[in-house]
Amino acid sequence: MESVIRISQLCKTYKGIETVSNVHMNIKKGEIYGFLGPNGAGKTTIMKMVLNLVKPTSGEITVLNERVLPNSYLYLKNIGSIIENPVFYEAVTAYDNIELHCEYVGYSRKGAVEEALEIVGLNHVGDKKIAEFSLGMKQRLGIARAIVTKPDILILDEPINGLDPLGIKDIRELLVRLKEQLGVTILISSHIVSEIESIADTIGVINRGRLLTEVKMDEIRKQHSHLEKYFLELIMGDDQHA
Amino acid sequence: MLKLMKLEWKKHRVNSYFKALVICIAAIFGSVALMAWTSISENEPLFPDYAAFMSLTNIFIRIVFIIFSSVLLSRLVIDEYRNKTIQLLFTYPLQRKKVIQAKLAIVFGFCFFSIIFATIIIHLLILLLNPMFPLFEAPARVGEMVASIPTTLLNAVMIAGISLIPLYFGMRKKSAPATITSAVLIGFLINANVSSEVASTSLFQFIAVPIVLCLVGLAIGYLSYYKLDKMDVA
Predict the structure, then answer these.
(1) Residues of A with Cβ-Cβ distance to B88 under 8 angstroms
(2) CB A49 within 8 A of CB A35
(3) First-to-last C-alpha distance (Å) of chain B
(4) Which residues contact B26 (CB under 8 A, 6 or more apart)?
(5) Whole-number Å distance between alpha carbons of A184 and A147
(6) Which of helix, strand or coil describes residue A199?
(7) Considering the domain boundaries, does residue A95 fall inside one?
(8) 165-204 of B, contacting A, C-beta below 8 A
(9) How many domains does chain A have?
(10) What is the mean pLDDT of residues B106-112?
(11) Do A104 and B89 touch (CB under 8 A)?
């Protein structure tokens, strides 16, 4: 299957400390790639490097067959993202935030904003200002913004943070629907291993800046009972080794 | 570029600043006119003529709009970094330098046109009110006002350039207070008058000073985006 995001020999050094070390990743078209790792392992940094927000010290990133260079920006049209906590323009309404996003991306389809808000269950609060939103609502709105332009790739860094169980279920079903119906490729990180387990096709485990493994979920299911057990064994083994 | 400017304008609701602009113009004219009017009624006119009246008015205009621009700079640039919305902005398929250029163009343009607009309005108010409530002894002539147009335009360009200098101080700590405080200091520093009984002068009157400061402001604006493609966005 064709790779949509290809990362090879990726390194990032901050003030002499290597935070991402020789990472290779291959994210295939139409799959959900679950990115797991403890806090500070380098997940967000790698996601930011794919979005060109952080520049690699060395290595190569290719997105949709286009090599990401320091001044690349056109490929971003095909990516919807949430990085860290979703941020919004507080002075304007939820609807306007999504509409502005569409205008910046250059996407104009009538009814797209309403549709995105409806998908995440915020259609009734579109005219409210962001200051009135709870963390969970902001997270939903962030997802609406990421999907409104129907991008080929979604990069979601902890998208279910702050969501209630019903919200988590909704987002889980939405991501599966996006993958199955629209063939969207999704790179998702989360601390909730069980959530990743239920939707991911491939798992990448990262610890202390190094990608420990990239494995198909089916293989994990065959060899281990649960992803959580597999993940913890891998991380603890790596920590002991260090 | 124009499209980006329109988006930035809409996003930051720059329209809402027009109300503040009108209040500033009213306050500038009101304070100078009040000084003039009370001094005339006490038979010790503060301003002998139109030129003297406009001399103080222009000082107020320059100070006010340098500070006004710093508020806009804070909203359009500094707050984007402070609130991390700059990360979002840089995930759009747009050249980063164009985004920052659009923001700076709004600040520069807003400052430039505000100064022109304020000057025109104050001229109109002088023409309208001076015959009824004398502000200075010699009558105001339209010819004098027309003759001041080139100087007004030049001053507006220079102040608009100078108004970008606070960006340097604001960006160091991504701080809106630092941006506005530095604007206040710059505004007062270059417009502070040193006077004797016969003459008064300020740094702004030495033409080289505003020109150099304007170029410094433009250079700071340029430096804020020229390396943006190579930098990490925190």
Answers:
(1) 87
(2) no
(3) 25
(4) none
(5) 10
(6) helix
(7) no
(8) none
(9) 1
(10) 94
(11) yes
State the Cα–Cα distance between residues A51 and A63, nearest whole angstrom.
Answer: 10
- The answer to whether the CB atoms of A87 and B233 lie below 8 A apart is no
- d(Cα B32, Cα B130) in Å, to the nearest integer? 13
| CATH code at position A61 | 3.40.50.300
Residue A49 pLDDT greater than 90, yes or no:
yes
Tokens 């891998």 found at? A234
Residue with tokens 């190094």: A210
Residues 96-125 of B with CB under 8 A from A: 96
Which of A70, A90, A106 shows the shortest C-beta gap to B229? A70
Reported ipTM: 0.85
Candidate from B85, B90, B233 with C-beta closest to A87: B85
CB contact under 8 A, B92 and A91: no
Question: How many angstroms separate the Cα of A213 from the Cα of each of A41, A51, A188, A217, A230?
Answer: 13, 22, 16, 12, 11
- The 3-state DSSP composition of chain B as helix, strand, coil percent (nearest 5) reads 75, 5, 20
Half-sphere exposure of B203 (CA within 13 A, CB side): 15
Domain residue extents for chain B? 1-231
Q: List CB contacts (< 8 A) between A53 and chain B.
A: 87, 90-91, 232-233
pTM for the whole structure = 0.85
Phi, psi dihedral angles at A239 (to 5 degrees): -65, -40
Residue A92 to chain B, least CA–CA distance (Å): 7
Q: Which of B11, B91, B95 shows the shortest C-beta gap to A51?
A: B91
> Whole domain around residue A195: which residue ranges?
3-84+153-240
Burial of A29 (0-12, 13-18, 19+ CB in 10 A): middle
Distance from CA of A106 to the nearest CA of B (A): 9
Q: Is residue A58 part of a domain?
A: yes
pLDDT, tens only, B14-24:
888 999 999 99
What confidence tens digit (pLDDT) does each residue in B165-208 have? 999 998 888 888 999 999 999 988 888 777 666 667 777 777 88
State the residue for tokens 């609502």. Answer: A137
Report helix, strand or coil for B223. helix
Structure tokens at A177: 């629907």
Measured between beta carbons, the chain B residues lying within 8 angstroms of A81 are 91
C-beta atoms of A89 and B11 within 8 A: yes
| Closest approach of A240 to chain B, Cα-based (Å) | 32
Interchain pair A76, B10: CB under 8 A:
no
- Within a domain: A91: no
Give the tens place of pLDDT for each residue, B121-163.
998 888 888 777 777 777 777 787 888 888 889 999 999 999 9
In a domain, A181, yes or no: yes
Which chain A residue's Cα is nearest to B86? A87
